[in-house]
Amino acid sequence: MTHSDTRFIPGIELSRALYEEAVRPILRETFPGLRHAAARIGSGSEALGFDTPRSADHEWGPRLNLFLSPEDRAEHGAHIHDVLAQRLPKHVRGWPTHFQESEDPLDPVGRMRATEGPVNHRVDVHTVDDWAAEHFGLDSAAAEPDVDDWLAMPQQRLLETTAGTVFHDEPGTLTALRHTLAWYPDQVWRYLLACQWQRISQEEAFVGRCAESGDDIGSAVVAGRLVRDLMRLCLLLDRRYAPYGKWLGSAFGRLPTAEVLGPSLRGALTAPDYATREGHLCDAYEVVATVQNATGLATPQDPTRRPYHSRPFLVLHAERFAQALAGTLTHPSLRGRPLVGGVDQWADSTDLLHRPRAVRAAGQALR
């Protein structure tokens, strides 16, 4: 039987079985007393809870993150890797623990394959400090992030660290990091909300202006951008980190507002003409503006649509919400700061977002 014939189970469940049935017994026997944390966090759809049978085609399967102290990792890390390679079972719940690396430089991934020899496993050994440095550029996982730290951390990476499941954490340092990063401090949250409303204000009139100029494709593209920004705004309002593009719709679909907003957002994306597109967008603006007012974070603003100055376009004038929120900022590092926002509000290049030093340098230049 090939693993394609095996019943699909969520990857988190598979990782738990790998740890509890295989890795933990080996660690207890070979490294007695070793203090560690075990989790399935990081990249991968299963860590976010979005995996499906399709996910099994690459870098999905029995995977695990082990966290040791710096001293234990230096002393035991390589030995743990080798012991697991020799002693892990070949399958967990019917799924191979061996990953065959692709030889295609354009497709450098691992795929589950049966093996008779040592297992090329996906049990990765880290320290919590190294994780914080690699993913966020933080000097120490134990330090409280400051405003600039928070604005330099992509939401996708925050989600990868705070989602998933911790199966065991005797030292407590991984749990402490996840607790620290669980959500933004209040003042940073308000600032990011203001910046998200500002993004919407910058383009909401372009849907009509493009159409008036005979550019219906341009009008539709701007509408799509606004739909994306509204979805990310709804996630912010519900205190949830936004995943990257592949899972944005899935994450949005889990929000309480999704059932109400869904028809308007789909209507804006599929509208055959400008008038229909504008109507759906304005319906969505009014729903989200009402949600914003209900938070009590800032002075409520009239949530209804209105003309864009003297032009015949209907908009929300979202800058009103941006300014109302900006008026609540009292933190000295945020009060008066340009409404540019966190890194993934002004950049969406994956290659940039995975380079913490570059992100910090760009953020300093913007500031």
Calculate the mean pLDDT score and round it.
95
Strand order in space, largest sheet: 7-2-1-8
> How many whole angstroms does the radius of gyration measure?
24 Å
When the domains are counted, the total is 2
End-to-end separation in angstroms reads 58 Å
Number of strands: 10
Oligomer: single chain
What does the main sheet amount to?
4 strands, mixed
Helix and strand sequence: HEHEHEEEEEHHHEHHHHHHHEEHHHH
Number of helices: 17
- Estimated share of beta-strand residues: 5-15%
Helix content: 40-55%
Morphology: elongated
**Low-pLDDT runs:** none
Helix/strand-derived category reads: alpha+beta
Structure description:
- There is one protein chain.
- The chain has 367 residues and is of the alpha+beta class.
- The protein has two domains: 3-180, no CATH class; 186-336, Four Helix Bundle (Hemerythrin (Met), subunit A) (Up-down Bundle), CATH 1.20.120.
- 52% of the residues lie in helices and 10% in strands.
- It has helices at residues 11-30, 45-48, 70-87, 128-136, 147-152, 155-162, 173-180, 186-203, 206-212, 216-237, 245-252, 258-270, 274-295, 319-326, 343-346, 350-353, 356-366, and strands spanning 37-40, 63-67, 91-92, 95-96, 99-101, 110-112, 122-126, 165-169, 306-308, 311-315.
- A four-stranded mixed β-sheet has the order 7-2-1-8, sandwiched between helices. Strands 3-4 form a two-stranded antiparallel ribbon.
- The termini are far apart.
- The model has no long low-confidence stretch (mean pLDDT 95).
